[in-house]
Amino acid sequence: MKRYKPKVFIIGATGYTGQHLVRTLCQQNTPTVAHVRPDSPRAEACCERFSSWGARVDRTPFTVAALASTFASDPPSHIYCLLGTTRRRSRESGGHETYQSVDVALTETALEAAKLGAASAHLIYLSAIGAGRTTSAYLRARTSAEALIRQSGLAYTVVRPSFISGSDRDERRVGERLGAIVTSSALNLVGALGARRFAARYRPRSGAELALGLATIAKSSTFCNKTIFADALDPT
Prior knowledge:
By secondary structure, this protein is α/β, with parallel strands linked by helices. The chain has two domains: about 10-160 and about 205-235, 3-Layer(aba) Sandwich (Rossmann fold), CATH 3.40.50; about 165-205. About 45% of the residues lie in helices and about 15% in strands. A seven-stranded parallel sheet has the order 3-2-1-4-5-6-7, sandwiched between helices. The longest helix has 19 residues, at about 100-115. The protein is globular.
């Protein structure tokens, strides 16, 4: 198995999983740059938090030219793309933030910047387990983003987790939390009846647990140019 000495750039660092990933990589002494969008409402708190963990904070404007310049000045070996919005944030933004404008358009911006400034980087994209279906606007957006990544020419890994939930989440997402609890209970029963692989694939994961798995991708080439489910990152 090929080992890397990674230098990581995290796009979407201020999100739930992103914050856990910054902390995990810093704890593993991996050089980590946490990108914080200048217009992020969490900017000040996250910048202070990331710096205290040992990450370098980057506040480059989210444009192709600006990000490409940042990548070129200090090329990362791995770029984590953890972008996404929710229906609630879309409503609160008056429709300014949508699945199309965030999940797809911002991912495309990151890809174009990487192609110009860090063409040898390995891009890790956090998708969703239902991607590839067209049953909802959210899944259609994830499917579109995945297609852009595969067509980019960059080395990539697409990760499709199930519920990402935890009691430490900043946002109150009661429905999602209850769904995760109910799903977890049902999958425990399914696993006990013998369908362990199915249960492992669909079980909810906390941000901390998912971050530990995501961090392993930067350490080897095992998952390069693959679409995987989160259970592939579970310790064996």
